[in-house]
Amino acid sequence: MNIEDFTDIVYEKEDNGICTATISRPERRNAISQLTWLELETILADMEQDEKSKVLIITGDPKGRAFSSGGYFDPKAAQMIPDTIKKEIDFTDMARIKTVSALFNFSKPIIAAINGLAIGGGITMPLVGADLIYMAEDAWIGFYFVKRGVIPEFAASFLLPFYVGFQKAKELIYFGDKITAQQALELRLVNKVLPNDQLIPYAREQALRLIPPKGPTRAINLMKKTMHKY
Fewer CB within 10 Å: N-end or C-end of the chain? Predict the structure, then answer.
């Protein structure tokens, strides 16, 4: 897939090494389709081969009043995807194994700036892929899979117990309750909670700390590689 064909994500690259991926489906509260996943995979591949790209910030289009409302599949919308792009999508991979692997094995730091609700795949994606997660104080998250009668995807069932312990992980996914930003911080699911208007500036400030001259890129990448060797 070519970057110029993107429809779901706004991808921006800056001269300072910061790249930003903004999930932009405001009419669906920034829900993530199979096409969105493909666009994210394309961004990761593009950054891997670009030495000037140092860190990725993922956030949601504020017009959608959400970071992401999770995954969705619309057969009619899928039919509208050009055949040249559709052939790159495995519609049977509902757990997004390819995307999970691409995110988890991505060599460069990823920062998630959760600027609104993040439910289902909208929260499991940053938990799997982001090295640092910052959250707006009015945002909230939820493992809503149980409310749809499905099991959590995106490796959440495997990784969540590492973050919060087995008993708490089971409670979170068995009930799917709403989790406030402060609760998410107390559960150690996010690194910091900020006022809404400070979220993106803070994420950018932290991103710059990971980039020369403030951050040793090579060393940080090796740290990540070591910690991700499960």
Answer: C
Burial of 164 (0-12, 13-18, 19+ CB in 10 A): middle
- Distances, alpha carbon 122 to alpha carbons 88, 107, 118, in Å: 22, 22, 5
Task: Supply the pLDDT for residue 192.
Answer: 99
Residue 14: alpha-carbon gap to chain centroid:
20
CA-CA distance, 82 to 20, in Å (whole number)?
25
Q: Sort 174 into a burial class: Cβ within 10 Å, 0-12 / 13-18 / 19+.
A: exposed
Q: What's the topology of domain 3-227?
A: 2-enoyl-CoA Hydratase; Chain A, domain 1 (3.90.226)
Q: Maximum distance among all alpha carbons in the chain? A: 49
Helix residue spans in the chain (DSSP H) = 34-48, 75-79, 83-86, 97-104, 121-129, 156-164, 166-175, 181-186, 199-209, 217-227
- The pLDDT value recorded for residue 44 is 98
What is the per-residue pLDDT across 81-93, written as a single tens digit (0 to 9) for each? 887 888 888 877 7
User: Residue type at 46?
Assistant: D
Other CB atoms closer than 10 Å to residue 158's CB: what's the count?
Answer: 13
